[in-house]
Design brief:
By secondary structure, this protein is mostly beta strands. The protein has a single domain (2-251), classed as Jelly Rolls. It is 0% helix and 47% strand. The chain has strands spanning 2-4, 12-17, 29-35, 40-44, 48-62, 65-71, 81-84, 89-94, 98-105, 114-116, 124-126, 137-143, 153-160, 165-166, 171-172, 177-184, 189-194, 197-202, 205-209, 217-219, 224-232, 243-244. Strands 2, 3, 4, 5, 6, 7, 8, 9 and 10 form a nine-stranded antiparallel sheet that branches. Strand 17 and strand 18 (197-202) form a beta hairpin. 39% of the residues are buried.
Length: 264
């Protein structure tokens, strides 16, 4: 399933996915919060929540804590993300024009709220040194089962380089996932695979991966692609690692004989 935003987001919370939407089947709330300078947003949800700053400058207030955070570009700057358990009051006040990705899901477990800083999420250059750099990309895993074992969410970002692939080799997993895209420049585009279906992705597109589909991505030459990925653990089946399609794994070997052969 694919949703393309046909116009810029309005100020306030822009709902894209809901937990109970059976067509989406994501088991998550997802939306984009757009705030103008001086605007505030406050909520106390009976849900696990994560708030990822896409761009801008905001003051966060939660569980007796206050922190001002800023991010100039989701392409060039590492992320800030606030992750809180159910029934935690959160207030976000914009000190400049800002956009925040909001993720929520059901989770009865308690855990300590945490503000993930850019230092907590270093860039990982996946694909480097293989496939003749045709799938080199930057992956930023903010939290997953390894550092947030009581969470029901996994949150991260990918920077796709112009003309290259990401989320490759093809892989799948039973846990539902949402991809949300930004392009630089904004008129850029890419393609997302959902098994045998190929979707053209644009700035502010959302793709739902909820049926064990393989989901590699590619970016058009000349354009950078950023996408947020959020996964929902399943009961007694948390997301740890995906299952790669065996017939394509050979391309990741450093000495894979990729056509045309290298000159001797």
């Amino acid at each position: 399933m694919h949703i393309r935003a046909e116009k810029p987001f309005s100020y306030g919370y822009n709902e894209i996915a809901t937990i109970d939407n059976q067509a989406q089947n994501s088991l998550m709330d997802f939306g984009i919060l757009r705030l103008g300078a001086g605007h505030s947003f406050a909520e106390t949800q009976p849900l696990e929540c994560a708030y990822l700053l896409i761009c801008g400058k905001v003051r966060l207030e939660w569980a007796g804590n206050t922190q001002t955070i800023a991010r100039g570009s989701c392409f060039d700057d590492a992320p800030w993300a606030l992750h809180v358990p159910q029934n935690t009051a959160v207030t976000i006040t914009a000190l400049a024009e800002s956009e925040i990705a909001v993720q929520r899901t059901e989770n009865a477990r308690d855990f300590a709220a945490k503000l993930y800083t850019p230092q907590d999420t270093p860039d990982e250059h996946r694909g480097a040194g293989t496939m003749r750099e045709t799938s080199t990309r930057v992956v930023r895993t903010i939290f997953d089962h390894s550092n947030a074992p009581d969470a029901n969410l996994v949150l991260g970002e990918v920077i796709g380089c112009p003309g290259k692939w990401s989320s490759y080799p093809p892989h799948h997993h039973p846990q539902p996932e949402i991809y949300f895209y930004r392009f630089l420049p904004e008129n850029g585009f890419g393609y997302a695979e959902l098994d045998e279906t190929v979707i053209k992705t644009h700035h502010n597109s959302t793709v739902f991966i909820t049926g064990r589909e393989t989901h590699p991505q590619t970016t058009a030459p000349g354009y950078a692609m950023w996408y947020l990925w959020v996964i929902r653990h399943l009961p007694n089946d948390p997301y740890i690692t995906p299952t790669f399609v065996p017939e394509h794994l050979w391309v990741t070997e450093p000495d894979a004989p990729i056509w045309p052969p290298d000159a001797e």
